[in-house]
């Protein structure tokens, strides 16, 4: 084996997933370390250095030439200065770390840093569901909601680099309290956590029958009326946010990642139905129908997307 590779690193609250990515967007070597986030930001940086060196050494031994390291992290990322401006509670002590400059000192290679949702979107733009689209919205639905607008093939970062907090646009004024300090945020209605909150509030004496979102969807597929009503309500809440993005960005389409992609057409057809009902007709004509697609890269999305900017010509 030979050729160029870039290291992509996806930082999660539990594990650091990393891989060596070739210029076709394929992960040729993988590695995982526990994040051990409770040890703080400096310890986390040390683990990133360790996993970077491990992958650089193992791939160069196979004849590859490493061109740099890309990192995707939760939180608000100062892309211009390569630093973590704001971190989630899952990564204590991570805010304020000058990741790019300090990692470059350790490995003597180019380093890029971005928000994890932006990284996922970048990967989908390169070799995933958004390939060939110049402008699209990418959403991740999980415990919370992450998002990114790909504009002209690149993540849109905004003035300070913090664009894409789609989960915190309000869809219900005075609605459910959100951990961001506001109320009525889309995340409180369209995340997987929100689905289970809705089930818990309405299941009554059947609550024990619905221990997880997977069970809710499975029962809905089998015709359970309550589960089906929950899925229908959930799809409508997702569509409410997506319709806003369609009106604001007029994208080629929307890519949805996260655990819900496993539900396939059963969920996506319902989302599309509610979107088609709520957007203005000019945004969904016969020549340019709305497209809402599941993300394709799965567990590799963060790795591939983090490495993608190092192949600077692949999307531009």
TrEMBL record:
Q: Which CDD domains match?
A: ASKHA_NBD_ROK_FnNanK-like
Q: Which InterPro entries match?
A: ATPase_NBD, ROK
Gene3D superfamilies listed in its UniProt record:
3.30.420.40
Specify one Pfam family.
Answer: ROK
The family note in this entry says: Belongs to the ROK (NagC/XylR) family.
- What is the name attached to this protein's record? ROK family protein
What broad taxonomic lineage does this protein's source fall under?
Bacteria, Bacillati, Bacillota, Bacilli, Bacillales
């Amino acid at each position: 084996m030979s050729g160029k590779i870039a290291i992509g690193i996806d930082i999660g609250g539990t594990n650091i997933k990393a891989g060596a990515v070739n210029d076709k967007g394929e992960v040729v070597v993988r590695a995982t370390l526990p994040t051990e986030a409770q040890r703080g930001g400096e310890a986390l940086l040390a683990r990133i250095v360790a996993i970077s060196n491990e992958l650089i050494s193992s791939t160069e031994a196979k004849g590859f030439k490493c061109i740099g390291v890309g990192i995707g992290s939760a939180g608000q990322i100062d892309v211009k200065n390569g630093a973590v401006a704001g971190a989630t509670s899952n990564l204590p002590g991570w805010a304020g770390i000058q990741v790019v400059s300090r990692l470059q000192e350790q490995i003597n290679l180019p380093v890029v840093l971005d928000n994890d949702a932006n990284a996922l979107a970048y990967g989908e733009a390169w070799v995933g569901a958004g390939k060939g689209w110049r402008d699209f919205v990418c959403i991740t639905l999980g415990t919370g909601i992450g998002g990114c607008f790909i504009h002209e093939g690149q993540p849109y970062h905004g003035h300070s680099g913090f664009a894409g907090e789609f989960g915190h646009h309000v869809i219900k004024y005075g609605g459910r309290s959100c951990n961001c300090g506001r109320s009525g945020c889309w995340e409180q209605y369209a995340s997987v956590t929100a689905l289970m909150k809705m089930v818990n509030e309405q299941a009554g004496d059947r609550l024990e029958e619905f221990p997880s979102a997977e069970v809710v969807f499975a029962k809905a597929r089998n015709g359970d009326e309550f589960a089906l009503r929950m899925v229908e309500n959930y799809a409508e809440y997702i569509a409410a946010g997506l319709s806003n993005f369609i009106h604001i960005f007029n994208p080629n389409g929307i890519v949805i990642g996260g655990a819900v992609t496993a539900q396939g057409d059963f969920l996506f057809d319902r989302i599309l139905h509610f979107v088609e009902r709520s957007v203005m007709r000019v945004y969904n004509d016969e020549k340019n129908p709305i497209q809402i697609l599941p993300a394709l890269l799965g567990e590799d999305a963060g790795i591939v997307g983090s490495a993608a900017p190092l192949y600077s010509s692949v999307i531009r």
